[in-house]
Specification:
There is one protein chain. By secondary structure, the chain is mainly alpha-helical. It is built from 4 helices and 2 strands. It has a two-stranded antiparallel sheet with strand order 1-2. Helix 3 (57-70) crosses helix 4. It is flat, with a radius of gyration of 31 Å.
């Protein structure tokens, strides 16, 4: 069992940190960094109209997924549909048939009479 004296010694006082050399303030976390990168704008040719347009990185990634599905990649197409409509529910048939090739085994197990 833990010694309560040791636990009290290692607790931090209000305003103290256990990681003094941690990530400095102002440094963005990974979510903010990825969001910034996905929102970067690039001028590219629109594959539908053929004209130069400004696209975000995420739009370019979506267009690449669409291009793959147009070339016959069924997984890319399924991924697009899942994003648009949500994944389809799968039903599982759990019915038990009467006729079974297995016969039940009668095990001679003593019953617990509550004296256990």
């Amino acid at each position: 069992m833990a010694n309560p004296k040791n636990i009290i010694k290692h607790q931090f006082k209000k305003g103290e940190s256990g990681n003094e050399n941690g990530r400095p303030k102002g440094i963005p976390n990974s979510s903010k960094r990825l969001t910034r990168l996905l929102e970067l704008v690039q001028r590219k040719k629109n594959p539908v109209t053929g004209e130069l347009e400004d696209f975000t990185t995420i739009e370019l990634m979506d267009m690449a997924q669409i291009a793959k599905s147009l070339k016959g990649d069924t997984r890319a197409y399924e991924a697009l549909l899942d994003r648009l409509e949500g994944k389809a529910n799968q039903k599982i048939d759990a019915t038990v048939r009467e006729a079974s090739p297995f016969k039940p085994i009668d095990l001679d197990v003593p019953k617990d009479n509550g004296t256990g």
